[in-house]
Amino acid sequence: MELKDDIAASVMSWYEENYNQKPLFAKKKPVLTPETSLSTGHYPWARETGDEIMTEYFSRFNVDKSGFDFFKYWPPSKGLIPNFLRSKELKVVNRRAEPLTIDMLIESAKAGRWLY
Fold first, then answer.
1. What is the dihedral of CA 93, 58, 33, 14, to 10 degrees?
2. What's this model's pTM, rounded to 2 decimal places?
């Protein structure tokens, strides 16, 4: 049980030190909890930063990422070109990002593989 607690503390500490920063124009940085979401909520990360965070996470905590679907949490956006100007195979479906929480990172680190 103690090792599992160490993993939880390690994930929280790693994220707090490296990524839980005060957003521009905010008075203070967000309070970090297991329910904090990286992909949704008040301060979601951009896709590029989300990719950086997850790449570092999988490596640092030795988590098998084979079941991880990045686009579930950071779905593609249409960008500047509207769908009606795109060919059928290049059309982008509007999807809402699902929350990717600190707790999901902790539980997957404990399991050694992506659980969600």
1. -140
2. 0.83
Distances (CA, A) of 94 to 56, 71, 72: 28, 12, 12
Give pLDDT tens digits for 61-108: 999 999 999 999 998 776 666 655 666 666 556 778 999 999 999 999
Per residue in 2-40, pLDDT tens? 566 799 999 999 999 999 988 888 888 889 999 999 999
Q: Tell me how far apart the terminal alpha carbons of the chain are, to the nearest angstrom.
A: 22
Helix, strand or coil, per DSSP, at residue 101: strand
CA distance 92 to 82: 9
Q: How many CB atoms lie within 10 A of CB 55?
A: 12
Question: At 42, is the secondary structure helix, strand, or coil?
Answer: coil
CA-CA distance, 96 to 100, in Å (whole number)? 12
Burial class (CB in 10 A: 0-12, 13-18, 19+), 71: exposed
According to DSSP, residue 31 is labeled P
